[in-house]
Structures are given as C-alpha cells and as structure tokens.
Amino acid sequence: MKKTFVRLAVSLALVASGAALAASIAEGFDRVLPGDYRSLLLKGKHAYEGKRYDEAFAAFQRTACAGDKESQSALGRMYLLGQGTARDDLTGYAWLKVAAEVNQRGYHAIVDKIEAAMRPEQRRIADVESRRLIDNYGLRATNMSCNLTATQGGHILDSVVCAPREDGPNLLLKRCVAELH
Questions:
Q1: Does residue 14 fall inside a structural domain?
Q2: What b-and-e string marks burial along 88-124, b requiring 16 or more CB atoms within 10 Å of the CB?
Q3: How many domains does the chain have?
Q4: Is 77 inside any structural domain?
Q5: Which of 42, 67, 111, 148 has the fewest CB atoms within 10 Å distance of its CB?
C-alpha cells in the first residue's frame, strides 16, 4: 500500500513537472503548423526579392523573433539600408550580432566590418542593444536549433538552417516583445 502511494505520488509529481515545463516553454510562444512556418519564411524571401520591403520586413521580423538566423541577418541588413523601416544602424548591427550566434562565416564577416568601423563608445552602446536582442531572440531564448548546411551539394557549409521546437504537430515560435524596434 505504501509503495503504491509512493509510486502514485512520484507519477503525479512527474506529470505536474512536465506540464509546468511545457507551460513555461510555451509562454511567449505561438503554436503554428510547420507548413505555415515555411510559408512565412518563403514570404519574406519572395517579398524581398520582389522589392516589396514593407512586406519582407514584417515577415522577417516575425521569423527573426522566432530565432531564425537567416531572418535575423536579413532584418539587420534591412535596418542598415532603411528597407521597409527607418534606417537604424544600431538596431541593424544588433540583429546581425544575434544572427552571428551561429558560427557562419558570412554573419561574422559583416559584424566584424561594422565593429572595425565603430568608436569604442559606439561599441559599448551597440553591445548593450545586442545583448538585449540575444537575451530575447537568441538560440537559448527561442529554443531554436540551427545547423550549417551546404547549399550547392558540396562540402562547403555555407548556409544556416534553423528548426523551431516541436509541440506535437505544431512548432513553437517565439513572439516579438512589445518594445521591439
């Protein structure tokens, strides 16, 4: 009887802790179907290629907040160029810095060039903004998993593919926070 009660108590504790973990992970996240997520990624790319920058910016912003590194890089470049948004070098650099969390040469090269052009006081301010975005939209905050891949079928890892955390048939996408620029 006592063993049965202990097993029941342990089982209930495990279920409760699993439910609490799932609730804490899902807080601040939207559940979307995988096809909807792929469509959102493609929407941003196609809109950008078609020079529909307002549409591209909105799509990239959503997927950048979710943790997609290509979207974060695209959003950073759009801020730097004033495409679909007002030009903002600080925010552009910060988004590029978030994308550079993964070890991809292209992401690091642009960040290195910008950092080389900054004065020390600019760098201090930029690092604060970068840290804020990484805390909100970096790999740890978004539960995104990213890997380097070869797009040309060769051995050169030249692209980053990110996958959101799964929740049953859905994907969990981190929402943008209200104070996002």
A1: no
A2: bebbbbbbbbbbbbbebeebeebbeebeeeeeeeeee
A3: 1
A4: yes
A5: 42
Give the type of residue at 108. Answer: H
CB 39 within 8 A of CB 104: no
CB atoms within 10 A of CB 166: 12
What is the C-alpha to C-alpha distance for residues 29 and 39, in angstroms, rounded to an integer? 18
Tell me what pLDDT residue 73 has: 96
- Distance between CA 138 and CA 58 in Å, rounded? 19
> What is the Cβ-side half-sphere exposure of residue 145, based on CA atoms within 13 angstroms?
6
Does a structural domain hold residue 69? Answer: yes
Using the predicted structure, report yes or no on whether residue 179 has a pLDDT greater than 80: no
| Distance between CA atoms of residues 160 and 60, nearest Å | 15
Rounded Cα distance between 129 and 122, Å, is 11
The residue length of the chain stands at: 181
Query: pLDDT by residue (tens digit) across 107-158?
Result: 899 999 999 999 999 999 999 999 999 999 999 999 999 887 666 666 555 5
Would the pTM count as exceeding 0.85? no
Query: Are 57 and 78 contacting, i.e. CB atoms less than 8 angstroms apart?
Result: yes
Q: Which residue range forms the structural domain that includes residue 126? A: 29-174
